[in-house]
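Handout, section B. The chain below has 298 residues.
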Amino acid sequence: MRLAVLSLMVCVGCAGAVRPEAQTAESIVRSQSAPLALVDAKTGKSMDAEAFLAALRTKRVVYVGERHDEPLDHGVQYAILKQLHRYEPSLAIGMEMFQVPFQEPLTKWSAGLIDETVLRRETEYDERWGFDFGMYRPILEYARSRGIEVIALNAPRELSYAVAKDGLSSLSPEQASALPELDLADEQHRALFDTEFDIGDHAAEDAIDQYYAAQVLWDETMGSRVAQALARPAGPQKMIVFAGRVHVKYGLGIPDRAAKRGARPYAVVLPVTEAELEAELKRPPEERAADFYWTLEG
């Protein structure tokens, strides 16, 4: 098994090699380039692949943040998924990229009952998410080939748009009754939202509050979905969750909200550049955005 662990560090090309122009986003994801370093945020020190995976295996949920349009981030997700699944056969994948009403086609996909064309059509992927499907194809194909459950995490677009546009009070009684419990009073989460989106000078206070309520709706929906999946009697024992950085940084979005519902312990992994890592390590350990950093080349 040690060889399997160490394979996480194997680089398909030399770490410093020039990326061929012919490479696609999908091929970058599949290449699984080795990290320049794996860093434990608590200590600020590098760790080897074996220690990194051993630490992740102690968690019930592993969150890997992403920049949606960055193939290297998805390559990190793909690499971690494959290595965790070697040790955790009862592992499910939670994905922000799919909305809750479209769980059925994802279930059919994992069972090998539909192909990619049907999956994209029946989840309305291209209309509702729209980022290059090739960046997610390796992850989804790996899940399908091994029967791994893929769980749609995100709130329906219609619901989040309605909240952002007109506020929670605009929802019908039926819509409101379907909402998870929303914690709108988390000051740290609100501060993160204000910093990340920086819309304070561009909208009225009521409008900003509505945008924030939509953000909380996303995070609470995704957190509740993670917790519900893990609480099922015959459900997965562990999950790996792929979502945008802002949803997982500092644990303030999905992770803490899922943890309040029982989905704990958890760890947050962020793919970062060397410059980002340097900035993170200048912060006190308790103020760092993740538990572990995977440093990207380039």
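Note. Confidence is low (pLDDT under 50) at residues 1-18. Compare this with the example in section A.
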